[in-house]
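not sure who needs this but someone in the group chat was asking about SIR2 family protein from Xenorhabdus budapestensis so here u go. i didnt clean anything up, its just raw.
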Amino acid sequence: MYDTIFNFKNYPIVFIGSGMSKRYLENSPTWQDLLEEYWNKIDNNNINFYNYLSEIKEKYIEENNGLDLDHKVYADAATNIEREYNKLFKSGKISLEGLTPKRVFDEGISPFKYSLCQRFSQNKLKLDLDKEEFESFKKFLKNAKMIITTNYDSFIETLLSEQNVEPKMYIGNEGFFDDTIGWSELYKIHGDIRTPKSIVINSSDYEKYDNESSILISAKILSSMIKSSIIFIGYSLTDRNVKKLLADFSSQLPKEDKRKSAERIIFIEFKEDEMNTFKTHRTDDKSQITYTSIETDNYKKIYDEISKIDEGLPPYDVLRYQKAIKKLILDEGEKGNLGSVLVTPSTLDELDKNPNLSKNLVVALGDKQFVYIRVKEIQYLEDYIFEKNGIPNNAAIDFITSLTSNKRIPFSKLIQKCDFHNIGLSKSEIDKVEARIKEHGKIDSVIKSVELDKFYSEKKFNSIKHIKKEEITKHKEISIIIKNIMQIDIIELRKYIQEEAFPLFKETEVSSLKSQLRKLFLAFDLLVNGDLT
């Protein structure tokens, strides 16, 4: 058992396999499970699925072609299942929402792969997952310099998006020939649910992948491994993708001390119920690559240690600033342009659309609208609700201390991300913040402040959709949402607040309705970011 698991200090490259989806998502299948599921959808002549797999396996054994045997069996099975499934679609025996025969013809879509995309589009979390570990997993993803995955689902990018991180995403072999930034990038090398044609599952898909993409992936990783280690998580050591990468590394990595090699390549191996982290150095028999193996079920400890790595800026911010600075200094500098343009953190990715780029430029990073003027309520709420992060902490704190103590406003996330005692506030301003925390820092107090009649005080709702079916005023609708906020799905709440509640707040002149909307914004903030007392 080791107190400190890793020795590296740079953000890692993370290779994520299906084991991570299986750990956290309901009904996340293995490749074998997935094929069996679709085998039962086709006309299989009542042949047992495993008898069918055995026939394929025997064929390869007879041909003395046993290398990567399971992979070949599953890829062959997928080829046949896809062919039969597509026949059923064309005959009208299977229908798929959103897919027509015309689309199949015009766009060359495989109904089987389209169905797979639908199958993996639902990211439903397990009810019994370890919530603390899961929160650590989300933070761990933010600290990955680059993520590479063979998973089709949108689980990873959804978790990043929830944290206001939008990595540059590449599907298939996209990006391997591009001059990419190398920070906060997500490579979905076996395809993505939004692009059915990108899915890699059958024999010809893998043949194309091996010939066109595999070596490019290895080259991309190797070029990033000068400073960053690579962590494999959610994979078995027998996985074909892992073995191929090790073989490529063997031919490309410089011959070096085995301990140094082991620090570059790390495998997290699942060992059920093992709360210790057993760390050993192993050498792969075929590739002769030495790597670090960590056996554990204590994934939280792994995540937490990676999350502590700090290179000054998180990978996503490096991506945003690097893209901005490269565009302004390199591209415009080569033209001999000089001058000034002010760049805000929330608009870095929009610089190429800025009409001022035709002028002479110099770079300044900051936010002009908040340098000389006091933040207005509508600016604060829009920045907060849509997580734009354009207002500096001290300007935001200055705004909330300017409010009367009884005025509710979301502030939990702000307080938790900044140490307001050490940003130059006066004692009276600190006292105002502490008073606001005491008065408005608990979600229960917001819920209890809502006044409803006996019927709606007692009636329970778990969906905004159901609340909207009641013939009630907008004020009462918002009150009922606040009253039942603990039972309503966070995604549904966020959508309602961003698409309905905030636009209503901007438009209405009714002060009582504005007050109720402020309560909703605060309640949601406390629900998502936690109580302050």
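also The CA atoms of residues 140 and 362 lie 35 Å apart. if thats useful
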